[in-house]
User: What shape does this take?
Amino acid sequence: MEDDKTTSESSPEAVEGQVVPEFVDANIGKLTARTLETEMETSYLSYAMSVIVSRALPDVRDGLKPVHRRILYVMNNAGLRHTAKFRKSANVVGEVMGKYHPHGDSAIYESMVRMAQDWAMRYPLVDGQGNFGSIDGYSAAAMRYTEARMSAIAEEMLHDIDKDTVDFRPNFDGFEREPTVLPAKLPNLLLNGQVGIAVGMATNIPPHNLGELVDAVQHLIDNPEATSMDLANFVHGPDFPTGGTIYGKESIRTAYGTGKGGVVVRAKAEIIEDKKDNFQIVVTQIPYQVNKSTLVEKIADLHKEKRIVGIADLRDESSREGMRIVIELKKDSYPNKILNQLYKLTPMQTTFHFNMLALVDGIQPRVMNLEMILREYLKHRQVVVRRRTEFELKKARDRAHILEGLKIALDNIDEVIKTIRASKSSDVAQVALIKQFGLSILQAKAILAMQLRTLTGLEREKIEKELAELMKLIAELEKILSSEAEILKVISGELAEIKSKYGDERRTIVVPNELGKFSDEELVPNEQVIVTLTNGNYIKRIAANTYKAQGRGGKGIMGMTTKEEDVVEHLVQTFNHDYLLFFTNKGRVFRLKSYEVPSASRTAKGQPVVNLLQLQPEERVTALISLPSTLNTGYLFMATRNGTVKKTALSDYANVRSSGLITIKLDAGDELGWVKYTTGQDEIVISTALAQAIRFKESDARPMGRATRGVRGIRLRPNDVVVGVDVAKADTELLVVMENGYGKRTKIGQFSTHARGGVGIKAGVVSDKTGKAIDVRAINNAADDLVIVSAQGQVIRQAVKDISLIGRATQGVRIMRMKDGDKVASIALVSEAALEEVEIKE
Assistant: This one.
């Protein structure tokens, strides 16, 4: 009872005659019995709602949390626009904390710092001067050292705030007033995104491209029934300030349709070969919210733990010009394999999880899809434009009202002067003017305050002109307020102006297909290319028009850089979407699509073929052919160095394992050297190093299975080996190329058909001048071009028709001038006659 008495006497109501202030709760000091569970539920709910509404979640209308809104509002009031001088950050933080945001100064400063970081914000709202941190995770300098002001685009967020466009409310102590939301010309929630953790809920919204958002809002204005899927045709996906590549258009559309989802983001990395034939992986963009320093440390740790093998050096060469992380690789490493390991084991590949949660009407948290967010923004802008127009209309009408009174006074200036002079006081004069000329109080006061200079003709003309302009403005404002369609038209026009002023290109690339599910073929144009493979098993792919035609006997251009002991052995003309079949000296076959061969420059050496094929020790590729992916009929005709031949149906190679298939059984000391595609009705020409050639019908060799030995194709003389195999037809010519750069064409009719297994007849004259035969080809179109590659990497391209057509037992003519010690290593026919031919000087 004593406690009750004390409590009662201490209550404001218990003191007789005391006036209780309005802001004091009359229940303060009273005790109420309540269970602990009830008190915890009530108090925790109040705390949760305070965090949700007042701290952690953004408003869907302006996309800002309270602290961000207050920072911009203070900077605007202080005149810290993008053209003003910088001011100390501590000044801004102190103003925000003292007037609007009763929280710690560090929290306010950290929020302002993030608004100035161009790797955190797609369109920074604060222009900072000084150390505002880095993408490596280093914190900003203390607020007493840095300076800040608003960015130009941030001013658009507060545009027209002084025109009664938004509601204001008292601050925490009732001495100031602050906006509940900003006018926000920009759809800032999606523009810069937001991250926040409240009580029991969180938001994670990625940044987007301004131009795409404007296009989507304008489409929504023109098509009110548009859905999120319709709008996703304009908003192609997040546009992160750090760039990167997003995989999966369907994942993006799901996130836009539901407000939740995840998209895979990869760093931008490129495999580069330097002049010393070493490979580098260069990273120039990383996923959003990834700490660059932490990423570099992670790569180093993986190397130390030997989870990634093949890294020789790791450097961070980032500068003001941009990001650049260089990963040097060892000579025997596999660049593509290491890059894939980096994506798998490091933050170079991350998943951004959408959770588009924001406050609707400033109080209700809701997960929204793309259409809902843009529609809420559009509703907000309709309110802002309507209130702004009403404000401007009232202001214009008030001014026009005054001008109309001044005009009446000027039209009746003598009577006005007489009335004023006859009045004893200004109040009497005011009443007299109102009564005599039918004026309002405001008009009468304006006339009494009118200066004598207004009586001049020039001043009179200015009043009439201003009144006419105001009446025109009033008509325009009334037209805007006449319908929602006019308001939407104004909004669309303002957005178009914003886009032209601040719009920029996307930084983040969006790949339509899901990572791991998409086909590279859909991303690679089906262009004509040339694939080269060296004796040292270095392979590359280049555009066919890289090699231009030259005259016969030319020196050629540098085709690729090779080691001294390496030579170019295979050169195949193909298309990106065609299959490449790789046959090895040990009688195995592998298959790839052409686009899977790494693209390289003309002078690059290429990559080791072991990066692409699972070759065994001492195994090398000896035959390379290209076949359209739709072809499933015909045969593969193969020949060995010792003259054994075999024919196998192409259908036997429909499914080639990544580990390869056996295609022929070989005798000891023999190896597979040539494979050609045949129809079953063709003729075969086999030539040897001593220029012996045999022509026989393909039907002489019956079809066999893959794992068989084959039959004899040509009987070799001592110290002779097979150097060329091709398919011949009745109307073709035989092209013979010698190792010292000599060659000739001979009609196939001079080579009579013999039975398979003979020694053949002369195809040319072998001498010290010509050297041994290096290859023989059946030419079906003399308009083709011949590409010749030497052992030292010289390449020449010339028309086949420029090579002399002469007899069988001749040495031929010079078709390529060889350097001392150089010899022809490989030839290929290129049938793209339409290529633009240019002269290349020696």
Q: What stands out?
A: Residues 1-17, 549-565, 832-842 have pLDDT under 50 and may be disordered. The longest strand covers residues 568-575. The chain has five domains: 2-32, 63-184, 268-347, 381-502, 520-830. The two ends are 114 Å apart (CA to CA).
